[in-house]
Amino acid sequence: MAPPLVSVPMKKNKKPSLVLTLSAAGLLIGAGSVGYWLLSQRQISSSDLLVGANIIPGDALFAVSLTTDPQQWQKLREFGTKETQAELDRNLVELRDRFLTNNGYDFQKDIAPWVGNDVTIAILAPATASKAVPKPVTTNEDAASDQQSMVMVLPVKNPEIAKNILAQPKTLKQGKWIDRIYQGIAIKQSEGQTGENLSAALIDGRFLVITDSPKATERAIDAYKNQTSLATTGGFAENFPKIANYQRFGQFYINVPTAAKIAAASPNRPLPAQVLAQLQNNQGLAGTMTLEAEGIRFKGVSWLNPNSQRVLAVENKAGKMQSRVPAETLMMLSGGNLQRLWGDYVLTSQGNPLSPIAPEQLKGGIKSLTTLDLDKDLLSWMKGEFSLSVIPNTPKEGSPNDFRAGLVFMVQASNAGGQSLRNSAEASIKQLDDVMRNQYQFQVQPAKVAEQPVVNWISPYGTLTATHGWLDGDVAFLVVGAPITDKIVPKPNNTLASTIPFQQTVPTEPNPTNGQFFLDVERTVNNFPLPTLIPNQQTLLAATRSIGMTSAVSDSRSNLYDIFIALKKVSNTNPLPSPERNNSNSSR
Q1: CA atoms of 507 and 16, how far apart (whole Å)
Q2: Pick from 61, 79, 281, 504: CA 20 to 30 A from residue 327's CA?
């Protein structure tokens, strides 16, 4: 059988299958109950933590908890387009039939009467992931321990029904069910069948735990008995409540050090030792997903390893750049301190082959192209808020331009205390002007836009390539591409901050913030070709209106994130196709 928890012929308006729920782990690309000891010792509400956090082993690689509320699942299916709905439904039906229908289970009949409001699935890292050198695999048991395994935790609201269903599992197509005891807990597991070997146990009468291997069941029981679960992992109980939401659709957790060790052991793209050491400073990344009227919201938190010597600077001084760019801005990314951001990037990316930009190469490239030292000549005065924006061009009649949009970089020339460093900035910018004039034969011409002085770089072919100048006294700007300087000078009357899409998409919390992001997906996709970065990218983008994010440093050990994805909606949603039951499988 596939244990009682995996069941579900879907009927109209009935609770979706557990596995349908689990399938949304792919949507999260991310609170329930914990043991009494945790509640009594730490005074943390069980609803603030991941469901089953006191059962899932602390070294779990990944965990996701998802709702069993049929109304929330129906709401999810209403987002997007007909194409994204069809793709979601295809995956849900495939998982439902694989895990539930094919094993003769019906969610409404067999599961709904006893299961709680959320269920959790966790992926356990191989036993060798925590060892420096993996041992040779010589036995079947060793081989099993070297594979990732899965643990499902289903909270039980009616223990009697759950006990009865576990005591009388449905007949397996192959093999048989056997009973055994481990640490005083009864386990029912399959034996003699090919493929998935399932194991089920009722822990403390409150949680039904299903795994795909006997060893995983034992690891879960050990975690519960020995208090070595997620609930006791460094920083988990302190940080997870920061993103708690009682109307959540789902929650997730990623164990960063364990994931790094697995990546380091990969024969294809191993992580260098120095990168692995840096990643050990980080402990966890967690998030809560909620469904709102116009889209999906993710609240996230990341935290450092409690034993790490690294600390975060609690500096949240961003939030003004969206008022310096015009309403038609397609994309804006802002941050509070460019020098600090770069320092953090270097710390975690140096020598990392997976980093998008190698810090050493970027510094060397700037030096060879401009003769400027990135740290000394540029970043030394870039300790204020900065932004990078894409603003569409409005070509003037009779003046064709090769660029359809301008890339705008702004940065406040100040130190960490907010004191202006414009003099230092102007000295560096003058050096840059000299390089463009003498080394690349550009014309460097003073000009005015709306009576404000600017400097234009005109290429040897006579094309305006870039413009730089100052805003508000100490905010330097550089425009590259389309000549859109007149859209930011003087300060626009209709700013991005005043637009409805920005206000409805970019979260207002956390406040104060150290950075924000906005992308008008609809207008960008309709006007500009985008590189393909993920599978089914065009389908997903076609379902999205805009994306917004706000972040902040919570304390010296953690960061907070709030992300909102505004989505289109499907006018009519059809019910999932009914499963074709195998009658020979439905007998007990």
Answers
A1: 31
A2: 79
Pairing assessment for the beta strands 443-449 and 118-124 based on DSSP bridges = unpaired
CA 447 → CA 375, 441, 468, distances in Å? 29, 18, 10
Token couple for 70: 């049929």
pLDDT, residue 272, reads 60
DSSP code of residue 271: P
Q: Which residues contact 128 (CB under 8 A, 6 or more apart)?
A: 134, 135, 145, 146
Per-residue pLDDT reduced to its tens digit, 181-192: 999 999 998 887
Cβ-in-10-Å burial (0-12, 13-18, 19+) of 535 comes to exposed
What is each CA distance from 441 to 432, 435, 437, 461, in whole angstroms?
13, 9, 5, 10
Question: Is 226 a residue whose pLDDT tops 90?
Answer: yes
| Confidence band, pLDDT 50/70/90 cuts, at residue 268 | low
Q: Residues near 502 by Cβ (< 8 Å), separated by ≥ 6?
A: 322, 496, 518, 548
Centroid of chain to Cα 465: 36
Burial of 17 (0-12, 13-18, 19+ CB in 10 A): buried
Q: What is the mean pLDDT of the chain?
A: 82
> What's the pLDDT band for 60 if we cut at 50, 70, 90?
very high
Nearest to 325 by CA among 198, 476, 497: 497
